Amino acid sequence: MMNEYDVCIIGAGVVGCAAAMQLSKYDLNILVIDKEEDVCSGTSKANSAIAHAGYDAVPGTIKAKMNVRGAELIKQLSKTLDFSYIQNGSLVLCFDEADIPKLNTLYERGIKNGVKELSVITGDEARALEPAVSENAVAALYAKDAGIVCPFGMTYAFAENAAANGVQFSFLTEVKNVKKSDPGYTVVTDKGEINTKYVINAAGVYADVIHNYVCDDKIKITARRGEYVLLDREVGDLVKHTVFQLPTKLGKGVLVAPTVHGNIIVGPSAEDIDDKEDTETTAASTAKIKECALQSVPNIPYNKVITGFSGLRAHGGDDDFIIGETADGFFDAACIESPGLTSAPAIGEYLAMLISKKSGAALKTDYIAERKNIPHIAKMPPEKRTEMIKKNPLYGNIICRCESISEGEIVDAIRRKPGAVSLDGVKRRVRAGMGRCQAGFCTPATIAILARELGIPESEVTKNRPGSEQIKEKL
Amino acid sequence: MKYHDLVIIGGGPAGLAAAVSAHEAGVSDILILERDERLGGILNQCIHNGFGLHTFKEELTGPEYAERYIKKVLDAKIPYKLKTIAADISPEREILYVNGEEGAVTVKAGAIILAMGCRERPRGALGLPGYRPAGIFTAGTAQRLMNIEGQSVGKKVFILGSGDIGLIMARRMTLEGAEVCAVAELMPYSGGLNRNIVQCLNDFNIPLKLSHTVTQIHGKERVTGITISEVDEKRSPIPGTEEYFDCDTLLLSCGLLPENELSKSAGITLDRVTGGPVVDDRLQCSVPGVFACGNVLHVHDLVDYVSEEAERAGAQAASYLSGNSTADGYVKLYTGFGVRYTVPQMIDVKNMSEQTVVRFRVADIYRDKSIALYYGDKHVKKQKKRIMAPGEMEQIIIKKDSFTDGIPDSIKVCVED
Amino acid sequence: MKTYEITCIQCPLGCALTVSVDGEAVTVTGNTCPRGAEYGKKEVLHPSRTVTSTVAVTDGVLPRLSVKTKTDIPKEKIFDVMEVIRKTTVEAPVKIGDVIIENVCGTGADVIATKTVDKFRIQN
Fold first, then answer.
1. CATH class assigned to A1-88+147-219+316-373
2. Could you tell me which of A126, A364, B335, C15 has the fewest CB atoms within 10 Å of its CB?
């Protein structure tokens, strides 16, 4: 790792990668570091995958601004950077006449925040839009503009576009300290020291630790665990809209939503956790979200659950994001909880604007504005598919049956920059192993492909970070 | 578009036996599509013995059993394509297959036999709480890694589920030097054969913990241990019964699910209980000319029955192709007490052959009970059984000449005293 | 006199057998049929098993060859036999039924191939 940079971004989640992507338009030397083995390994990989319309945040907050701008950017970027985004609309269900004022409050917030196409509708109107909605819903806030996005796809799109424009990545690099030095900061890591003029702190649940190395006004981030269950694509037409609920007796409320890949997601729970690595699922949380969701959609076929998972949200004290230059040359993107995924591109844009101004960096003349995703061969019409296979026969060798992913696509995932180095990295990029058999069939083949492409023995292929090797030894 | 009289999806035990039988019945234009690099399917990784006692009257290993049928297919020069996946089937019997050599190719079939087999129920579907570390495998995946790829998945192993694959892997891993802590089974009885409990667990002093399940998976990167709990009659964990096991691997042998995504694309009606297509006594699905056999139809206990069923499917497809496709009205088979499902689910009594084998599984362990057959309200047949268990398939034979009072409204199979 | 509690595996009934051995005299109780008595006697006096495993293959289309002992071997020799199997490497091609290890551990049983593994050729 070279150790002199203009900008060092700590954290390769969606926020760090968005900042890298936006900053890569400028003539700057940029390094993104992350303690995990790949991009998108923390909060960015385990969330609701929603592009929120922007009626949740209190008007005037940073959250409100970033949310609305972020939602706008996602629509544009999903085209230029080729990631999955669907404008499916959302409903916030209200189950009690007495709660309708709360819907109106959300409506007014939305209008103030600049959300378009927002309306309060009756229960019957909601059921006309979304027949699966419970008879008990008396009214709903309908946001036609709300969408769903692939959180992995978006993060990889940002990372790959950044890399194409010269941004470097260093993984398995954990920050131990950030010290003021001349002319900026020294980021001390377990892999050595990095000298940089500017630091962007996009460290997710650890952003408080990074912030507190540098700033006098200390902050605290609590890891708020959210658990989800994911249902088979077979029942993917259960709902078309993202169905939220107003807080109820059962708690804050959970959502039932389609994903861009055609699954159904149910969750999250909300549990404050001391351990920032604790992404366990618990029987109690699973039961709770399942029960709570039935209030919105009474007939969720839970026998079609294919997996459950937890993510940690970086919850700060003030209920707002901390974004901006909190110390000279030190830029925070901290306390990024919901709607963090939606806001990420806007946060990146804002930080890039601040740093470009401060540094006076010029725009690149050879900037690459577009990026193409790894092709999903099985989605192509047969003639096009045949053409692709004739060019690369590996596209004809299906490895993941459930999601119809070929060896060629897995190889592409590994050879991209930054590329997959683990089973989870392959899974998040091309969905091999994300289907109903949950990698039962494809694990042996994917391990063999990773070993071959990375030039390592099968026993060194990991699920994610080191220590997660699947194979113990060769017989 | 190319045409074949018969396209068989899957070159495992079901597909091979169906192909041989259809060929013997005079079908000359057959194509087998197999996704793996060789014929034989899951038998290639089932290197243990115990196969073929019914079919060949001798005890074979999985690969040896497969070899017998592969030889017949080769001798009959039945064409097959390897590393070729069927990606889609239309209700008009057009099949889209994909491989590295030809690309994506659509062929039209006169008849289709579905023989895609089944898959294992994964961790996610079981809802086991805890982290998602490396070291959790379905038993069949571990078996493939070990017996085909030559890779060992763990040193200290816990197994959840006492299905036969789990039991077989307990022995296999022990023989390769791993320590198998125990096998836990949610139900109060094992889903595996007695023989496997004796020779795979008892031989190596591996405890079988009935009415237990995994209630916590420990370890963030790699499994470091698991906690199990005893379960009550409702299969809910009983607080206070937790027991911790130090291990680096968790194998899951918690049930098999017929793989019917293609059947769905063809618009074929599925049975909610079996997870496989609804078929008539010819093993024909709801889409005419499409037949099903083996584990894609319902999960079998012995491969011998898969072969037998597949041979029937092959013969029936041949008969269909020779113009024999009249159906004069079906009589539905109902399941009474103790019977979870039947295959077939309906019989064309008027056109049925001399007899038809009805296979099913029972819902619980029954000792000294009978399998009873009713036509409408009329009691037709009773078959005494010393023991019946959910882990084993049962069967009852319906003979054409037993319909002495004409065609009944319904047929019922049940367990009774 | 020694007694053994074993499960009969002759049929799904799975009778719980009690086998008593007193010098030459062996008595089996708990069985439902004569096959059970026979099984109990043999399982206590001369238990035997077929061992199935894999051996390494060089130059083959597969890295492992599945094998078995052609006949049952004494149960107490299972791990000795495994030890020999584990150290064995064969060169492709191998045909199903080929003898891989003769008279393994002096049991009188050969270890034979249960699969055909062709030689690996780079395809043009």
1. alpha beta
2. A364
